[in-house]
Amino acid sequence: MVKVAIFGYGTVGSGVFEVINKNNETIQKKLGDELQVKYVLDLRDFENDPVQDVLVHDVEIILNDPEVAIICETMGGVKPAYEFTKRALESGKSVCTSNKELVEKHGAELIKVAKAHNCSYLFEASVGGGIPIIRPLITSLAQEEVESITGILNGTTNYILTKMELDGADFEAVLKRAQEKGYAEANPEADVCGYDAGRKIAILTSLAYGKNVDFADIYTEGITAITKADFAYAKQMDSTIKLFAKSVNKNGKYYAMVAPFVVNSENPLSSVKNVFNAVLVKGNMVADTMYYGKGAGKLATASAVVADVIDCAKHLGKHVNIVWEDEKLEISTIDSASRRFFVRVASTDKTAIEQNFGKVEFLESVSADECGFVTEEMTESEYKAKAAKAGNVINMIRMD
Amino acid sequence: MVKVAIFGYGTVGSGVFEVINKNNETIQKKLGDELQVKYVLDLRDFENDPVQDVLVHDVEIILNDPEVAIICETMGGVKPAYEFTKRALESGKSVCTSNKELVEKHGAELIKVAKAHNCSYLFEASVGGGIPIIRPLITSLAQEEVESITGILNGTTNYILTKMELDGADFEAVLKRAQEKGYAEANPEADVCGYDAGRKIAILTSLAYGKNVDFADIYTEGITAITKADFAYAKQMDSTIKLFAKSVNKNGKYYAMVAPFVVNSENPLSSVKNVFNAVLVKGNMVADTMYYGKGAGKLATASAVVADVIDCAKHLGKHVNIVWEDEKLEISTIDSASRRFFVRVASTDKTAIEQNFGKVEFLESVSADECGFVTEEMTESEYKAKAAKAGNVINMIRMD
Known about the structure:
Two copies of one chain form a homodimer. The first copy, chain A, contains 14 helices and 20 strands.
């Protein structure tokens, strides 16, 4: 019997309780041992909920109980999750978490603490909800030199972009509906500005290269400037627009960014719709592999936490090693990254456009007073200089 | 230093040699130890190939060398791979393989032998080539009750179906071109009749439920009867046609089959094109997760073998447990499975059609002397009886 405690009985925590209880038989068969939730920590009471029998309000009861081998930290936020996690690991208890903020900020350190105390710190649920991505990346792709990771890692923005495309609606209108339906927060900044996706690509990139990526080094651009006109142009290119969280290892330089991209229908990520998430990992030997599923939601996220619990339970008294060192991974500014750009300018003077932007591929204009076109490949800083010189750019979206 | 031997220097074996040598530094960083290929076993010589330095013709040299901890079995076929694998495991050497035939026939037994000798038998590369699917299924989804597995598991047939759709061509013509290009074998039976996909779904289903699925119990139907007319009807339904390898756990009964299905564009499997493979696993908690990548090819398949080598190297002297018992998993005949059917009959008498098949949804006929329609949901045996009574069915494809 392996005894587990859950920190926080919110959405994910109550999901973990449900998955362990409902699928207990299956888990026992696969693990060869039984999992039992001995405690759930929450400040609140939950009358008429079976959790009440195992509910405690004091973390010390759990940290001081030598029977508890594994803790599911589903509180979210850095305080007090960081302190609780560190103390649990120091007492030899493995911790499995869905807390992306804590993992992004302190992942490398907490893995080190776990290693020193022969226990594990696992965080499959912190990226991509229920999608197995972290374990495949660090085990199934351990032999690969990762050339790039491209993810649709935020369900809210993918839902908004999908609806904008299908309904031909503009951003503000769709956001409002998404908020009414509970698919977007009242304050949607973390999602629509790309910060949530940025934290997740920071974690994945740290794991791909074994060094610490600082979220602050990641160029982050959201979807608030995308309009239905952009989708009309994308359609002409047999493409759609997706918010990509992307990191690239090219000629020994590392780039990481979150930004909208024009994505051709040939790219399997183009068909990832609504709140689904997906991650495409390109290795130097295996080429493209993609992982797809529900990027959020109570049971999907909880399922990923429980997968980690089973991994810890299989390795009790041992450290499940994850290579993620404190050493900083230098992220280059995107200025030197090279690609094609889809651009709209408030001008119909094609000669002037080509004089400035070089040879371009013109699209059919969606309104009489503008031109939409795709440039040839150039660096971000070259593009920036040309756009500044033009002075009439309505919008620019990078080409995948 | 962990010493490895490779059995067979064919396509996959030479790929394994290449992956281990080229990515040695990355592997060492992730594993914390170095991998070295000490021997390659092949009856042939390979002059001017670096493999020659480690080439041996006698398996006994490898089996009797206590330094060799892990063997990559990339010979294919049952003889002598079965005997070599068993002897290797009995001497405590872990075996990693791409040999789906051997795994499908003797997987349960060889895992048992490995367990008894504190070593491992791993076979990620036996299904889906480079796609991480077996490890995610047995680790990341260990907490899930698997409700269904649906795979595009054969690259040759997916290439043929993709080309038929894009070029509006018929099966025979596309097969001929595929053979010229080397995408299909001179004798394409194992691919186009669904046997290859059948072996793979047998393996995945055995792993999902921990009991042994007999390939002979799997209903197998190939793509040889699919025509361009079928694709024309599918297009009307915003769908395509894919060869699915599928197993379902419904009301305590297990079904497994390989057959062409009409797949709507909403299903992420519909956009898996050409030689790519993908597997959609539906769990009772996480819902749909999908895994996508190259289902074949030298380096992709070799990469999956090396992932297993790293896993074995992390667990030297221990057994990486896979639950796959000898006990047979009862597979129900598909007669009682229920679904809708797309049917073409050589008749234009819609009244007679509905008298026989019940209420149907008629499609626009693609030729003057036939009707195409979709039935309501019924069991396979109900459909069979109605089709026999009609006596004029041109083709039937199941609806996903």
